Amino acid sequence: MPAQLVLSIDTSVAVAVALTRTDGTVLAERSSDAARLQAERLAPLLAEVLAEAGAVPQDVAKVVVGTGPAPFTGLRVGLVSAQTFALAIDAPVHGVCSLDALALQAASTLGLEPGTSVLVVTDAKRREVYWGRYSVGVDAATLVRTAGPGVALPAALVEDGTTAGAVVVGPGASLYGDVLAPSSAAVHADAVTQPDPAVLVRLASAAAARGDDLDPAPLYLRRPDAQVPGASKRATG
Questions:
Q1: By three-state DSSP, how is residue 219 classified?
Q2: What's the CA gap between 41 and 60, in Å, rounded?
Q3: In angstroms, what is the C-alpha Rg of the chain?
């Protein structure tokens, strides 16, 4: 098989993997909703999509990875795996904000009209959400991010007007829909549950055509929960 394939990975919510052609045609895809088992699930899913497509790693011409935002550990699994895979086959790695994919998926799934505002929220732990606000373009396949990505308490997004008039989607919508709903156009808790890696490929292709930066740097947005202990204080008598 010629080297014309794209491997796409996202671990910002759980685990999702796809192998596509460069035009975005999906050859194989797998996902898992185990949000805390990214490290255990990713490698088997990678092997499965390659096997289903009858491909070997050297058939992959490019790797696309979701850059979050997401909690440190899960997101790092996907980014390190994407970079390691790409290094082994000497292929480039392109990064795409995972919230962008969720927004595009929601706009298509819900058939949103041009000009509709979309607020994507995912679980950031600590009772916070990662968020991004978007405007639907001339059709549901085109969106513009108008604010974010950021991390905040759901109530803070209501207070500062971020939710105003927006269709709210994403995993955070099911967790905090009661807080977000009063100031939003609608909350669709089940419209999208995790980023589709095939959508990441389409977004990466469009961004590359525009000449946008596709740096695979992670969007952690805050320090990890685990911290290196500081020096012990000396006891004084």
A1: coil
A2: 21
A3: 19
